[in-house]
């Protein structure tokens, strides 16, 4: 099963089982079923609760917050995550604030789904990884879709938090297979963190969100085969708040697609330093895209966006010197 | 304007309405007084001159209706709940505060009432609440108070479009006081609010003056239609006779003197009733203030 199918199936299950759940977004109705076809079939089954909206990211996020205030649940699809910038006020100043600013906890069951990331030639305003812009907002939890996490469980966890959540969905994952991990690596999922490892003690730990996992896995495989470097990969479903628990290893890398500056990885690195400073051979290494807009042309985009080659090179350089 | 003319223009209000309007006035004046004494933290926005707007709407609302207020919301809250103590405790961060002192003057939530501090932000949220209410088939509505200045925000138009498209039971009450903080409407708003309503095919009703029974008679059938999914913008032409927040009114004296203050007009027309109820209102507010000031700080269980 592909990741988009898994997500679509999860949405179907949620809409079938939760009569108080609404789904709102632009162009989400059948036969179109959303720009990435993730909402396909939902409006046919639930015409009253799957609502296609005007091109109004701020308003639809506000409508979701209003439904949540009344005890309903709501999922908003932002067509391209970049457009979540237009909903920032509703998320920062209303939905997340409402959880606590009225003096007692107000449950707010709402999820904003944001397709993000480059690699598909959509250009500077349709390819960004916006996670870092939402880190550190009280009452707002950040998740990232991954091929190692079942989307139904992730969506249910988000609703159970009773606070606004953003689900970042790396667009390149939609067409990739679920649960694929190449031997000799194995995967186990504990507490929302997928751990991909070998039997041996690792030379390094890679922390990467879902959109980066397949690129990190490719680098881990080539590092093992070509350099005999053994890596353990941690893929957290929830990016923030994130209680990082890194297995013992001399080197830690945080890999993400975000461009440079104020990254999620810097936040993770700080937590790893505080907790594990004594046992590290050196500071955590951040691997991310360049300090640049995301170009459209494929050859230019490849120069900016992190891929498995970059991950392989950085890890080899740090460990082999 | 002569007293004789005023009397003709100013129909008598019943004691309950006038008492509420005067209590809101006394409350707001007390806040400015407490500020000048250094007893209030932060900022506050008073509704001096606009007190009658929520009082006029009060009997037209049902307990199931949701009210969305804004930064200038004390009158909206008091007209809904009459809770002087809880509101003052919230503003002062004292025991008994409606929201434990976390929200303060402009972030208050209580049974079907919610205020936020960012312009235009509540309209989309009200649309979501109205969607819920419409689906529940309760006949309840969402009322959103905004000002003329709020029409500068794009969120207003996104929400009006959705409200009209989805036929949501939303009543937008515009308190058009002609000034956004320090900027007059002439520098703020192209065209008219009526024109903007028309652009969305949303009904518009202009309310002038403070003849509460007449206002209610006119609005009642329109609000009944809102409950059936015919949204409405009710624009009250009103006057903010005080500062935006505290002592920041830069309007020149000749402009201020031309503002029509319902209280002065009413007192001139109906001095005996006005004086009698005003004394009682001020006495009640003084007693509440003395009580709240003496309370310990509010306690918050935390986020």
UniProtKB/TrEMBL annotation, chain A:
InterPro entries the record matches: PDHB_mito-type, THDP-binding, Transketo_C/PFOR_II, Transketolase-like_Pyr-bd, Transketolase_C
E.C. number(s) listed in UniProt: 1.2.4.1
Database matches in SUPFAM superfamilies: Thiamin diphosphate-binding fold (THDP-binding), TK C-terminal domain-like
Catalytic reaction list: N(6)-[(R)-lipoyl]-L-lysyl-[protein] + pyruvate + H(+) = N(6)-[(R)-S(8)-acetyldihydrolipoyl]-L-lysyl-[protein] + CO2
Key words of the record: Oxidoreductase, Pyruvate, Thiamine pyrophosphate
Main EC class the enzyme belongs to: oxidoreductase
Biological processes per GO annotation: pyruvate decarboxylation to acetyl-CoA
Transketolase-like pyrimidine-binding domain residues: 1-176
Pfam families, per the entry: Transket_pyr, Transketolase_C
SMART domains on file: Transket_pyr
Cofactors: thiamine diphosphate
GO molecular function terms attached to this record: magnesium ion binding; pyruvate dehydrogenase (acetyl-transferring) activity
Function: The pyruvate dehydrogenase complex catalyzes the overall conversion of pyruvate to acetyl-CoA and CO2.
Name recorded for this polypeptide: Pyruvate dehydrogenase E1 component subunit beta
Organism: Nonomuraea endophytica
Automatic annotation (TrEMBL), chain B:
Gene3D superfamilies listed in its UniProt record: 3.40.50.970
Keywords: Oxidoreductase, Pyruvate, Thiamine pyrophosphate
GO biological process: pyruvate decarboxylation to acetyl-CoA
UniProt-recorded Gene Ontology molecular function terms: magnesium ion binding; pyruvate dehydrogenase (acetyl-transferring) activity
E.C. number: 1.2.4.1
Group of enzyme by EC: oxidoreductase
Cofactor or coenzyme needed: thiamine diphosphate
One matching Pfam family: E1_dh
Keyword Repressor recorded: no
Residue ranges of domain Dehydrogenase E1 component in the record: 24-258
PANTHER family: PYRUVATE DEHYDROGENASE ALPHA SUBUNIT, PYRUVATE DEHYDROGENASE E1 COMPONENT, ALPHA SUBUNIT BACTERIAL AND ORGANELLAR
Name of the protein: Pyruvate dehydrogenase E1 component alpha subunit
Gene source species: Nonomuraea endophytica
Lineage: Bacteria, Bacillati, Actinomycetota, Actinomycetes, Streptosporangiales
């Amino acid at each position: 099963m592909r990741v988009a199918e898994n997500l679509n199936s999860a949405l179907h299950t949620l809409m079938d089982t939760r009569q108080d759940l609404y789904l709102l977004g632009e162009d989400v109705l059948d036969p179109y079923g959303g720009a990435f076809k993730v909402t396909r079939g939902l409006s046919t089954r639930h015409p009253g609760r799957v609502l296609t909206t005007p091109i109004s990211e701020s308003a639809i996020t506000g409508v979701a917050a209003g439904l949540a205030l009344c005890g309903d649940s709501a999922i908003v699809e932002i067509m391209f995550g970049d457009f979540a910038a237009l909903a920032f006020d509703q998320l920062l100043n209303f939905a997340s604030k409402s959880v606590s600013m009225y003096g007692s906890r107000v449950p707010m069951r709402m999820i904003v789904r944001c397709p993000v990331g480059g690699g598909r030639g959509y250009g500077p305003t349709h390819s960004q990884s916006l996670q870092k812009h939402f880190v550190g907002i009280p009452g707002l939890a950040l998740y990232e879709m991954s091929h190692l996490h079942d989307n139904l469980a992730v969506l249910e966890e988000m609703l159970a938090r009773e606070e606004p959540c953003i689900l970042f969905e790396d667009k390149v994952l939609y067409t990739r297979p679920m649960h694929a991990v190449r031997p000799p690596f194995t995967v186990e999922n504990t507490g929302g963190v997928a751990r991909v490892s070998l039997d041996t003690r690792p030379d390094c730990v890679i922390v990467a969100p879902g959109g980066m996992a397949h690129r990190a896995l490719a680098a881990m495989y080539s590092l093992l085969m070509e350099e005999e470097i053994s890596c353990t990969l941690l893929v957290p479903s929830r990016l923030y708040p994130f209680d990082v628990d890194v297995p013992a290893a001399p080197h830690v890398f945080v890999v993400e697609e975000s461009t440079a500056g104020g990254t999620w990885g810097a936040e993770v690195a700080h937590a790893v330093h505080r907790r594990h400073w004594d046992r590290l051979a050196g500071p955590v290494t951040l691997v991310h895209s360049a300090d640049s807009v995301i170009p459209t042309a494929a050859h230019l985009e490849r120069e900016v966006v992190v891929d498995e080659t970059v991950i392989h090179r950085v890890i080899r350089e740090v460990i082999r010197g | 304007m002569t007293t004789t003319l005023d009397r003709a223009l100013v129909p008598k209000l019943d004691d309950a309405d006038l008492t509420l309007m005067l209590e809101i006035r006394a409350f707001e004046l007390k806040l400015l007084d407490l500020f000048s004494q250094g007893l209030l933290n932060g900022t506050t926005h008073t509704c001096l001159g606009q007190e009658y707007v929520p009082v006029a709407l009060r009997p037209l609302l049902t307990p199931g209706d949701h009210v969305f207020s804004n930064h200038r919301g004390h009158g909206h809250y008091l007209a809904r709940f009459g809770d002087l103590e809880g509101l003052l405790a919230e503003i002062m961060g004292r025991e008994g505060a409606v929201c434990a002192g976390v929200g303060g003057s402009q972030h208050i939530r209580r049974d079907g009432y919610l205020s936020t501090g960012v312009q235009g932000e509540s309209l989309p949220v009200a649309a979501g609440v109205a969607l819920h209410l419409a689906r529940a088939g309760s006949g309840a509505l969402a009322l959103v108070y905004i000002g003329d200045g709020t029409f500068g925000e794009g969120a207003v138009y996104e929400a009006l479009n959705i409200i009209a498209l989805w036929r949501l039971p939303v009543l937008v009450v515009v308190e058009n006081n002609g000034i956004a903080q320090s900027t007059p409407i002439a520098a703020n708003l192209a065209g008219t609010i009526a024109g903007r309503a028309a652009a969305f095919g949303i009904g518009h009703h202009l309310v002038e003056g403070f003849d509460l029974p007449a206002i209610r008679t006119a609005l009642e059938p329109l609000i009944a239609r809102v409950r059936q999914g015919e949204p409405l913008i009710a624009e009250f032409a009103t006057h903010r006779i005080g500062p935006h927040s505290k002592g920041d009114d830069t309007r020149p004296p000749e402009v201020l003197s031309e503002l029509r203050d319902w209280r002065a007009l009413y007192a001139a027309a109906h001095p005996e009733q006005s004086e009698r109820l005003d004394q009682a209102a001020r006495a009640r507010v003084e007693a509440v203030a003395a009580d709240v000031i003496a309370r310990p700080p509010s306690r918050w269980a935390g986020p």
